[in-house]
Design a protein that fits this description.
Elements: H1 3-20, E1 25-32, E2 37-44, E3 51-56, E4 59-69, E5 75-81, E6 84-90, E7 96-105, E8 108-118, E9 140-146, H2 151-172
Antiparallel strand pairs: 1-2, 1-9, 2-3, 3-4, 4-7, 5-6, 7-8
Helix pairs in contact: 1-2
């Protein structure tokens, strides 16, 4: 088997990884807020309604993801929650992803919070909250952002390894 064909096929497979993966999964590792807070869980751009949470002032909290943003163009997340009307206008830098979330904490349900994550795991920029119970406070979030590799790429890669093995066996014989 020609080595250039194998190299071309591998390059094609690696190109597929970069262009066809659409979901962004974040392992949430922290929330920085006046008074500090821990966070854990997963946020996923392909599965809205997933939750993450932690403890804040000795009270448990959870956040339910409602919408995700992955483009750096100006974005708007607006609506009305049990806490009141909100409208977040924001622009992200390359490598950031944002989630519009509703927090439930200490009897307060549906607190709209915009969570922006940096791809390198450092705390994303805090966005001031617009509704009670913490208007003007800007929690920032950190986590590890990963773009999952499609299953087809793994199957293609294992098939290519098999073909390389067959070619080496034929060459040896």
């Amino acid at each position: 088997m020609n080595k250039s064909i194998i190299a071309g096929a591998i390059a094609l497979a690696l190109g597929t990884v970069a262009t066809s993966a659409s979901a962004v999964v974040i392992s949430v590792t922290g929330m920085n807020f006046p008074g500090l807070s821990a966070a854990s869980g997963v946020a996923d751009t392909s599965t809205m309604g997933t939750t993450f949470g932690g403890t804040f002032f000795s009270q448990p909290w959870t956040a339910t993801t409602l919408v995700a943003y992955t483009t750096t163009a100006p974005n708007t997340w607006a609506g009305t929650s049990p806490q009141g009307a909100y409208s977040y206008n924001f622009t992200m830098t390359a490598g950031q992803v944002a989630f519009g979330t509703y927090f439930d904490w200490s009897g307060n349900n549906g607190i709209p919070v915009l969570a922006i994550f940096n791809a390198d795991g450092s705390a994303g920029p805090g966005v001031p909250m617009q509704t009670p119970p913490f208007p003007g406070q800007a929690p920032s979030f950190q986590g590890t952002v990963a773009v999952p590799v499609p299953a087809a790429v793994w199957l293609f890669g294992s098939g290519m390894l098999g073909l390389v093995g067959i070619a080496r066996r034929r060459k040896a014989a």
